[in-house]
Amino acid sequence: MKVTLSVASIFTLILMGLILAPINIDGKNELVLYIGNFHPLILHIPIGALLGVFVLEVVNLIKPKLQLENASKILLWFTVISLIPAVIFGMFLASSGGYNVEVLSFHKWLGWATALLCVWLLVFRLWAYTKSQKTIRIYQGLLFINVILLTFAGHYGGSLTHGAGYLTKDMPVSMKEFFGVEKSKTESILSSIKELAKDKGESEEAKLALIFADSIHPIMDKNCFECHNANKQKGDLRLDTASWEMIKPEDVKKWETVFEEISEGNMPPEEEEPLTEADKNSILNWITNSLNKLTPEVKQQIALKEEAKAKAKAEQRKKELAILASKPKVKLSKQALHYANNIKPIMDKYCYDCHGPDKQKGSVRLDRLNWDMVKGADAESWHSALDMINSGEMPPKKKPQLTAKERKEVVNWITNSLEHAAKAKNSNAKEVTRRLTKSQYTNSLNEILGLPINFGSVLPDDGKSKMGFTNNGETLQISSLHIDYYQKIARNALDKAIVFGDKPEPKIYKITVGEGIGKNEISAEFGGFQSVAIKSDNFKVDVLDSKNNEKTDVDEIKRLIGIGMRGSGNDRFSVVENGLMLYSALPHKDVPPRSWQGPSPNMKMLVKNNFPRSGRFKLKIIAAKGYALEAKEGIIGLRKNEPAVVNANTIIIKAKDVKVINRLQLKDDKFLVPIATDANATAKLKLNVPETGYYQIDLVHPYVPQENMPSFLMKIGRFNKVQERLKLDKSLADKSEIVTPVTLASLKKGTYEITLGGKFFVGFSEVRISQLSDDDPLPKKLKAEAAKNQKKYENMTPSIRAFIGSRTDDGMDYRTFDEDKDVIGGINEFNTYEFTGQLENLPLPVYDPNEKNENSNTMIIGLWNNHLVKQKGETGPPLLVKSMELEAPYHPVWPPESHTNIFFDSPNKNNKEVYTAEVLKKFMEHAFRRPLIEGELDRYMDFWRNSRDDFDRYEDGVKEVLVAVLCSPSFLYLLEGEKPSPKNTAEEFLLASKMSYFLWNTPPDNELINLAKQGDLKKQLPNQIVRMANSPKIKNMIESFAYDWLRVDRLKGMSTNKNLYPDFTRFVKQDMAEETYSFIHYILKENLSILNFIDSDFAMLNQNLAEFYGVEGVKGNAFRPVAIAREKNRGGLLSQGAFLTGHSDGVQAHPIKRAVWLKEKILGDPPPPPPPNVPELDPETPGFETLTLKEQLELHRNKASCVDCHLKIDPFGVAFENYDAVGRYQKLAKNKPIDSKSKLPDGTEVEGIEGIKEYILNLKREDFTKSLVEHLYAYALGRDVSFSDDKELNRIVEKIKKNDYKFQTVLEEIVLSDSFSKSANQ
């Protein structure tokens, strides 16, 4: 009882508080309104629960044997607990206004009383059930009363939501007459229209009235009356009694409001079902026709009313000013009076209707903006308003426009006020203090320690600013997670940098390939899913010491080293007398598991268990240019994925005739299927080949669902196996049998044994072997392929791309390293090619001694011929690999530079106190990027003195201090606080760091530091900018800046439809990003005009990407400028795959994404974000699949909630329709000619991408220049731009224009700008 009383008392206090405490008095508290919207959501829970309590009590009264008392008690508790939030939320919702006050009052207080009575019923029930049956009956009576209260509260709630007559609204007329139900006002209006039609027949008045009754009223009844009725008037607008006769000014005003709200897409609201286009047009046309027929008397009444309203507003403003002026403590400044008397009236006249207290179009409210842009916080909002006024977007064209005098008044006032605010903000500006980004931190550690390890990979990703950059000081905060990581990384990095003892003995594993070279030698052959192993007879394994002598007692290591070719087509590699012939790599269609296996072919040395785990390594490959091999007996990859046509000569081996089977069973007297899904089943088939020739082998099998991983393994004679996992579409489930092409094969006359089966075997009914017919062109093509390829590629060179990783169950986790290297010399002219890297940067297997899986604990060291090709029949320039040798750890000198850079030679080396001070001073100055402040070294020396005795080795004691240095804010941040003296020198060091992290993303080099020491850096800025722009390290800035500015990250995350775009491989994707980086780099290096970003007569391409785009004559992997004819549509950033693919949906082009990118990143005019619940393009629309993108957009744009924004966006996107989802140019889409003509918002007509480029270069050149400058400026300063930067940005733009838009001028002017090169404390 105590608990129940306590709960009831608390709930009662809450309910009483709802009466006494004021709730959202002005109706504008957004949180209260938001919570109130949940009232309808949870309201029905306590209603149902209370009715359930009543039903349980009634049933228990009739059948007490059921003993439902406890169930009723629990349900009553649930009712009370859910009623309290329902009442609270209801009170919050009621405060929003727009409801009939009388009905709302009944609903609110009946609901409140229901809740209060229900709360105390809990207490009364508990007491009653301990007394007598009489008290229980009293409780049940009170419960009945509670249900009655609930019913009345619900009735009034229904009236609020659906209107007063919601119960009788749809009652048949005869029933209304029988029960004497009075006609509603709406029904009276409709009845009067019928009478009018009888009296006036075909008159214009009668026609408009009948249209209203037959068409308009039903539409509004369905879509409008629920929110605009007697008891609920959203926006103080009631429509259910709206008269069709526009004979009163208030009627005209009401219908004008309806017209405006519907035409602008505000009604119905976004969360409701939108009007159909036909319904929308019906209403708008009817209102237009009715307004056109207004009588002169009505028009005069409207004019008088508007005039009176304007006078009332003016009087109200005078009163407000008088009240303010009468207050003794308030003295309006001259500026405030100017705003109140001159600016606010104009804003009130043209702006506040759409951006005021009643409506905030685009979530913009102007009436609350603080006029004082210096002391207030609304300068940015005023800046946005100025942009909208200057661009002509505000007021909208359909609204009354400012006079020339009014526009000048407002524009001048905002402009002047912003200038004052900018000066005030700049005079109080503080330098942005920001930590190093993830990449800057890694680069800094690399340079300080001389270790090229990606130490920062474990750090959390950096957040993005509003402008999209990850180097923004506002987002670069340090969390506790960062601090923990920084300590661990610093300690780990120093452990690797500092070495002890003698040079470690490396592991050197070498494999040499050649026919028969490995006979009687020890090596391994690795199996596994889709594995293709080189026979151990054809390669030799050597385990060597540092002097290249064979080690002894290494047989066990050799038994775990082999060569794997998984992912390689059987006809794309071959062991020859002096090596392994690798044709040019053919990327797989990017679907697993083949996409996890590398391109075809790729060669891998597999090392199980005994692999190096860390350190620098060297991979040495002896290779030469190879030659195309004549077609020979064996497996040949399919040239097309279609079953062969069965004819009289097709050899058919039926499953039921097979005698030698293992773990298979006959099903339906037709199929041999595994006895269990994962059984490793096999069948042995005999194949008698009647004559030598080319054959296609097809497998006939049943449907098996994807979750059972249907697969097959087929091995013909001594040739390598063919193993595949099938992707069987569900549409094939009803097929009695499915035919899957397996392979082509060159077979000789005679008998072959076919082994068929494998784990998760799909089963089969037949194996069909069809000889390619004489009239089939493929046999001749296969015979001629070698000679044709030899001639085609005789003047081209193969290329070696090396990689390292770990073996997985059905592929590999790998990463390439170092640069690819072209093979020099002629056929069979062997040379040595060396690749180096750091094992810590590569995905090595995590060694687990307890793991016994055949693929576990296996490192892969591999390569492929990087002269990529696109077709199976193309060999490319073959690569002949003689040997591959891995050495790790690789130390050309000992101790390594990472150690000697810290513990350098010094005459004071034996004096630990002096030597330690030298070591720390040099390391700290390198880490802090400046000379030390007086006393700064002492703190770290004290740390060393206090901790040195805790370590056995001197170096370990120093290392602990160095960990502290690498966790210091002076290393982790670009600081302006702590500075050495004199002041000008300090500023020079800060400038050196800012320049270096801006242009190189790395710490300053010796030249910058030396100039800073001499105080000459500022004098030498122009020369240093040129030097830095021409350094290879400038690529760091280009990649980091372009990745964020141009949203190259979207390319990285894009997943395209592999069936539609099978040749869009990961290699094409990588090259698209590199195309953009190389393009920007070339323009900067050659100091070309930035207008080349919009259009250029060249593109940066390599062979792989050029072939993908359809550009001929580009050979080799290196990116280089390629002259591009205008009709190729490939010049500039706008036609590059990184942007086009990244802004598609993976299936087709996405004009909206592309248009938003263009406006935001290129034109500097970002559109507003889409509203919530914005409808998507609806694929269910009849005929949708045949519509072009332009037609789909027109359909989407017709929706009221979408039209305004899309009219400003879509025209830019339509111009990109010629580019598909992967950035290739097309003239047809869905078998229709593409119409890329578009009319831009300013009325300019363009056609396609060339039209957009001309538009920008001719009309928007300055907009693009400013957009580029703004983004690069924000990146350089590590902060977003604001209105206070406008003057400086405009100055930079003017300088760039005067210098022919040279890219290096952009960098130079940003670095020379006051915001960048001058200290905030000056």
3D architecture notes:
Residues 203-418 form the Cytochrome c domain. InterPro entries: Cyt_c-like_dom, Cyt_c-like_dom_sf, Cyt_c_Planctomycete-type, DUF1585, DUF1587, DUF1588, DUF1592, DUF1595. Keywords: Heme, Iron, Membrane, Metal-binding, Transmembrane, Transmembrane helix. Pfam families: DUF2231, PSCyt1, PSCyt3, PSD2, PSD3, PSD4, PSD5. The chain crosses the membrane at residues 7-25, 41-62, 74-97, 109-127, 139-158. By secondary structure, this protein is α+β, with helices and mostly antiparallel strands. Among the domains are: 2-162; 173-294, no CATH class; 332-427, no CATH class; 507-628 and 793-888, Jelly Rolls; 634-785, Sandwich (Jelly Rolls), CATH 2.60.120; 987-1025, no CATH class; 1167-1248, no CATH class. The strands form 9 sheets. Strands 2, 3, 5, 6, 8, 24 and 26 form a 7-stranded antiparallel sheet that branches. A hairpin with a 5-residue loop joins strand 16 (711-716) and strand 17 (722-725). Helix 3 runs antiparallel to helix 4, helix 35 packs antiparallel against helix 36 (1200-1214) and helix 38 packs across helix 39. It is globular. The chain starts with a helix and ends in a 5-residue tail after the last helix. The relative contact order is 0.06.
